[in-house]
Amino acid sequence: MKNFAALTRMRIQIAFRNKMFFFFVIVMPFAFFFLWLGVLAKGIPERCAFYLGPIVAFNVMGSFWGLSATLVLFREQGILRRFHVAPVSASDLLASSIVANYVLTLPIVILELLFARVIFHVPSLGNPVSLFILVSVGIVSFGSLGLVVASVTNTMQETQVLNQLLWLPLIFLSGATFPLAYLPRTVQRFGLFLPATYLVNGLQQTVVNSTTPWSRYVEILSLSVWACLTFFLSAQLFRWEPEAKVPRRAKLLVAATAIPFLLLGVAENMSDRVLREARTALETFNSSSPSSARPASLGMPGKPAGVKNPSSGNQN
Amino acid sequence: MSWTVSSHSRRSTSFPVIFAPSLAYKLTNPLGRSLRVYKETGHLRYAIRSLSRTGPTRPESTNMANSILQVENLVKRYGDVEAVRGVSFGIEEGEVFGLLGPNGAGKTSTVEILEGLRTLDSGRVSVCGLDPQRDSEALKQEIGAALQATSLPDKMRVIEAIRLFASFYKRQRDPQELLKRFGLDEKKNSFYGQLSGGQKQRLALAMALVNDPQVCFLDEPTAGLDPQVRREIYDVIEELRRDKKTVLLTTHYIEEAERLCDRVAIIDHGRVIALGTPRELKARSGGTTRIEVRLSKPESNGTLKTLEGVVDAREVDGAYVLHSQRPPQTIVSLVKHLEVGGNELVSLEIATPSLEDVFIEFTGRRLRD
């Protein structure tokens, strides 16, 4: 516990001295925040509420980039070797990465929520407990994903490629950038297999409909299980040495982490719950617009894809 | 004219005496007088003693049962490549032990197995009575290590690094005291990325001692450093020896092994090819000492071959090169011979055998820097 605390403090200290950290963890998230709420939502409070969940999810998910890159850099530079010869365990090091990431990301999210309320006058931030749990479990689970990426890649180049391959579907097919209801029906169905979709939907529903943690149990539980699985996997596959090879069983284990969302995706595709919620949220968004035919900045159709007669749906 | 006692030119620094200029005049005088002068001033005695410079006097073989570190028939493979092939040695408490060999000889693999960083394929190792694999956590409390190819985050301050690593151990030394001892006190608030190569290496050594370890592993501590910084690191390691620290040092620098180590294991292609004190190794190699003399009048090679201890004598570029098994006796015999024949000694150069000769003898190759 003492080692874990010392390492966490070290990671936070070093992050604050890193210009890249300021850009990627502070400047960029706020740039997206103001772009989404100020430009896409045109500062209309109800529209801002619609985008707030996705933009918070976007920033929460982004933490996996930093974690994977830092860990791979530490391994490439031989920094991990130095820790390896000291009485420090892989779990201490990985857990400190997750906690440091949490401590660094949470204030940004809180500031975003505060700005949404104060600057953009979002009517309500929804259920604070639900919001806190979803944000927390989101930071931890996507942070753990970063650790897995670091464990299965050998070089920084490989890490960046894999990060891109993961990042693009996560942000474009989950509703974090384009509302899920706008996407083609097939893509929506595919999106239900992505963990990001549940984070985005959970946060959006919390802000827009003030849903309770109990009504968001599917999102919270699935992301929590996934966080545990990915953290466990990253500890199993962790390598101190740059020349250590990725074990053959790694691919099998990585595939295993997809199981929760494969099962959930099948169930959600059958129940249509998430897609129904996404369509309802979009209707609320459209109704808040002076010209409700389409959200002006996106140039997207006002009618969600795959829905001939938008219904009120389940509000939870 | 001068008398120079130097090592082989292969060695990076000159060993050990260049006589004072004031003596040069006296050497131009008749030989008998010269000899008296040397006897009076003690220089000859010094020169002769230098030839048989006493290295550390530990016996070659160590009682493995009493060793603080034991390696028996250690084997390590990386795929099809056998990096370590049955290495065995033991280190006594308070000893500075060197693993000398070229790059890729298996030194680092051996050390990393002892540190618990790598698994062994067969054999048995014990450090402080602990099995590095089974008792890894307990072992890490007892050892210190300055690894090869390691680093710290660039934005970490020197004092933060020392404090962080000290916090991992049950037994801790005062970080401030360590920084002072390693000459890093003024740099304590500098970022790691701002340190020079020598400062980084001194920090690595300081960090290896934060837990006051029983055994200290120094893996190529001077690799890639310039000669001046290297000598700074030597001073630090010599201080460790004075403090009776047990040190396992790997190196491919001959000078480092000869200067710092009580005993040396020469390792090549994953095998220990020779083990002993530097002096023992040099003696065992069968290498002779090279004595190069310039005389005022010519001498016959045949006559010089009859001098005590000389196994070979030949004229090279106007100088006489004698190969002697007993250099002190050869010099005395030479001086007497010249005195009788009315000849004068113009210059004399002595090159002692080095560990490189031992390496060449066993492998037929040179150790490369």
Largest interface: A-B, 22 and 24 residues
Task: Tell me the span between the first and last alpha carbons of chain B.
Answer: 33 Å
Q: Provide the β-strand percentage band of chain A.
A: under 5%
Structural class of chain B: alpha/beta
Low-confidence stretches of chain A: 291-316
Report the total helices of chain A: 13
SSE string of chain B, helix = H, strand = E? Answer: EEHHHEEEHEHEHHHEHEHEEHEHEEHEH
Topology order of chain A in helix (H) and strand (E) letters: HHHHHHHHHHHHH
- Tell me about the largest β-sheet of chain B: 6 strands, mixed
Top-tier CATH class of the largest domain in chain B: Alpha Beta
Summarize it.
The complex is a heterodimer of chains A (316) and B (369). Chain A has 316 residues and is an all-alpha fold.
Topology at a glance:
The complex is a heterodimer of chains A (316) and B (369).
Chain A: H1 2-16, H2 19-40, H3 45-76, H4 79-84, H5 90-118, H6 128-152, H7 156-172, H8 185-191, H9 195-209, H10 217-237, H11 249-257, H12 259-271, H13 273-287
Helix pairs in contact in A: 1-5, 2-3, 2-5, 3-5, 3-6, 3-7, 3-9, 3-13, 5-6, 6-9, 6-10, 9-10, 9-13, 10-11
Chain B: E1 3-7, E2 17-18, H1 21-27, H2 31-41, H3 43-51, E3 69-78, E4 81-91, E5 96-100, H4 107-114, E6 122-127, H5 136-142, E7 143-146, H6 158-167, H7 175-181, H8 197-208, E8 215-219, H9 227-242, E9 246-251, H10 254-260, E10 263-268, E11 271-276, H11 278-284, E12 289-295, H12 301-305, E13 310-316, E14 319-324, H13 327-341, E15 345-352, H14 355-363
Parallel strand pairs in B: 1-15, 5-9, 5-10, 7-8, 8-9
Antiparallel strand pairs in B: 1-2, 3-4, 3-6, 10-11, 12-14, 12-15, 13-14
Helix pairs in contact in B: 8-9
